[in-house]
Design brief:
heterodimer, A: alpha+beta, three-stranded antiparallel β-sheet, three-stranded mixed β-sheet, 5 helices, 22% strand, elongated, B: alpha+beta, GMP Synthetase, Chain A, domain 3
Chain lengths: 230, 76
């Protein structure tokens, strides 16, 4: 039998990540900060305790009680892991059933959310997704200075949203072409407005322009360079 | 809900130990009062109130699961 003590792994459970880490730290006699773990099962909260599953983590025993035994991922993507852990905690505290996947690339961190509650993230024009991204960026400034730019995304949401907005812009452009009357679109963020402007360019007889103050502005689509009629 | 707001607020401010959250639970509405150090007030409100708005959005989403309206009040 080939048993390598250094990399022996043990699994721990808890009602949430912090709880599981606490269990591991108690069992191994280590500070919670010193625990290196991988999440085996994200667990789920369930509704009113029905169908809930405890979270399971796998801890490498002996990994961190020596001096400086490197056990992190080979690329040492520390900020990404830390951001990921914090978002997982945030999502857990919100009581949402979502999986969190982090990818670090060139100092920036990309977080992908998915799961049963993903619709909550994308409804009302992705308000919650945007709020999460904004807050996490704010938190990162203080807590993980090494983290760089952080993007919080929901699989495929951006693409779908882009398609939706393109379709809306096309429809409105056609209408303006037909009626000759300007139309105002709902308030959008800079990225979304860009999609509108690019789409409207496909229609030579109409033009688009943003108006308003602040982050969200409205785009007006109007007939192009006709003599003003009031 | 209280724990969620504490977690967010502590990560935003310079003086996490001064963060105090009080939860007042009503039948349909939960009021969360957030107190931070004076110099940290701007950090939880943000430019044009954007940070505060994001926090409210997140609290509202968390409240929706509990079928509760959540009101965030930032105390001076």
């Amino acid at each position: 039998m080939d048993l390598d003590v250094k990399t022996a792994e043990r699994e721990f459970e808890g009602k949430d990540l912090a709880d599981a880490v606490r269990a591991a730290s108690e069992a191994l006699g280590l500070a919670p900060d010193a625990i290196r773990y991988a999440v085996v099962d994200e667990g789920r909260r369930g509704l009113f305790g029905v169908g809930s599953r405890r979270i399971r983590i796998r801890v490498q025993e002996g990994a961190s009680n020596g001096d400086e035994t490197e056990t992190g991922p080979p690329d040492g993507a520390d900020p990404a892991t830390e951001v990921e852990t914090s978002i997982r905690r945030l999502v857990g505290l919100m009581g949402l059933d979502l999986t969190v996947r982090g990818q670090g690339e060139d100092g920036s961190v990309r977080i992908l959310l998915d799961g049963p509650h993903r619709d909550l993230l994308t409804q009302r024009d992705g308000e919650l997704l945007a709020a999460l991204q904004f807050l996490v960026q704010r938190m990162a400034r203080r807590t993980w200075p090494g983290a760089g730019h952080i993007v919080v995304e929901c699989e495929g949401y951006r693409d779908r949203r882009e398609e939706e907005i393109g379709e809306l812009a096309r429809e409105v452009a056609r209408q303006v072409e037909r009626t000759g009357r300007p139309r105002k679109l709902p308030a959008m963020n800079p990225y979304e407005r860009r999609v509108v402007h690019l789409t409207v360019r496909e229609f030579p007889s109409v033009t688009s322009r943003s108006s308003g103050e602040g982050f969200l502005k409205q785009v007006t689509v109007s007939p192009a360079s006709r003599p003003e009629q009031g | 809900m209280k724990e969620l707001l504490e977690f967010i607020a502590r990560a935003l401010v310079d003086r996490p130990d001064d963060v105090v959250v009080t939860e007042i639970e009503g039948e349909q509405t939960t009021v969360l009062e957030l107190k931070v150090a004076r110099e940290d007030l701007g950090k939880v409100i943000g430019k044009q109130g954007r940070t505060a708005r994001s926090i409210r959005t997140i609290l509202a989403a968390a409240g929706m699961k509990l079928r509760k309206r959540v009101v965030l009040e930032i105390l001076e």
